[in-house]
Design a protein that fits this description.
The chain is α/β, with parallel strands linked by helices and 344 residues long. It is built from 10 helices and 11 strands. Strand 2, helix 3 and strand 3 form a beta-alpha-beta unit.
Length: 344
């Protein structure tokens, strides 16, 4: 974990007597996403609620950092992360922030105008909540073809089976989340052995963080805000069987590791989600394939079955052996999204 310095304690009545401040962190590492970073920043600056601090953290890419430093608006503070990995980059943003709340959005996503205001209004009204998340809506760059709504976590978006109304969730999706900074630092921030890092099959850093937050502060401390929407770009390359296999492997491995670290009820949502897929989604898609005389719904059902099978196998492997990034398996990168399944 990162070593972050705790601030001096602040009484709850002092924090509630003033307006909460907000920092937003955008992490990036690829030059290919430079135009997307600019679009993300523009959406944040055009929001109803401006952030008090706006950070773009560049992960191990000095030339990209130089270009962004000279071209981004003056409101943006550019930071560099010397340790590869999304979790490490997020921790750099957390360490630099001084605001009450730190929000995170992916570099290939754009925020709805009311994204930050919806999050901050909820934090102000629900003082018991320490973390929040909202919908991650797909922005398809090409036809989605056979990709069913139930597998949108593969491309880092909110999937069918996720909570849709306001209420508690186990963890937010990493593309759209926010935490009270004091409590985030208090539990050590993001665990750097989880989360995307190069070609390693490592994900679920937001799930691991949420489970530690629950262990430290009790259940139902993270909420879902339907109005806090972001739009996540889904290029044609992400609608691929290769990505389904890769994301299912990484999901299963990470959840197996989490099962080793936390009590079994922590992964209860996964079981409910799997039952939903097998009892509802797969039969429905197969019926639709016959009714519509189209192969695409059947391919969607096949993708669901493949994802469940691969994830289950990888879960057993991850539960039996706590794979480390230095020795764990890796695939060539595919610029995949970082969604996490079964966050409710």
């Amino acid at each position: 974990m990162s070593e972050l310095t705790l601030l001096a304690p602040e009484r709850e009545d002092e924090r509630s007597s003033r307006e909460l401040t907000a920092a937003v962190v955008v992490c990036t590492s690829s030059r290919e996403r430079e135009p997307l970073v600019r679009a993300c920043v523009d959406s944040l600056l055009g929001g109803v609620r401006q952030s008090d601090e706006l950070f773009v953290v560049v992960d191990c890419n000095p030339s990209l950092a130089d270009d962004l430093r000279s071209s981004l608006p003056s409101q943006v503070q550019l930071l560099e992360c010397r340790h590869q990995g999304l979790s490490a980059a997020r921790n750099v943003g957390v360490a630099a922030a001084t605001s009450d709340v730190v929000a995170f959005i992916d570099d290939d996503a754009t925020a709805d105008p009311r994204w930050l205001s919806s999050l901050m209004e909820t934090f102000a009204a629900e003082r018991q909540l320490l973390g929040l998340g909202g919908p991650v809506l797909p922005k398809w760059a090409a036809r989605r073809r056979w990709m069913p709504d139930e597998l949108l976590w593969v491309v880092g978006c909110t999937y069918t089976g996720h909570r849709v109304d306001a209420g508690p969730i186990r963890n937010p999706i990493g593309c759209n989340m926010a935490f009270r900074r004091r409590e985030l630092i208090g539990i050590g921030s993001f665990e750097t052995s989880f989360g995307k890092r190069g070609t390693a099959l490592a994900t679920c850093d937001e799930t691991e963080l949420a489970l530690r937050l629950e262990r430290a502060h009790g259940p139902e401390r993270i909420g879902y805000v339907p109005e806090a929407q972001v739009h996540h770009l889904v290029p044609a390359s992400r609608v691929s069987w290769r990505l389904v296999v890769r994301r299912s492997l990484s999901e299963g491995l990470a959840k197996g590791r989490l099962r080793r670290r936390f009590a079994q009820p922590a992964l209860g949502p996964e079981r409910s989600y799997a039952l939903l897929l097998l009892s509802d989604a797969v039969p429905r898609l197969l019926r639709a394939s016959v009714r519509e005389r189209s192969v695409e719904p059947a391919l969607g059902a096949a993708a669901i079955i493949a994802a469940l099978t691969i994830s289950a196998f990888a879960f057993v492997v991850g539960m039996c052996r706590d794979l480390r990034l230095s020795g764990g398996p890796s695939f060539a990168p595919d610029n995949e999204g970082g969604g996490d399944v079964a966050s409710r």
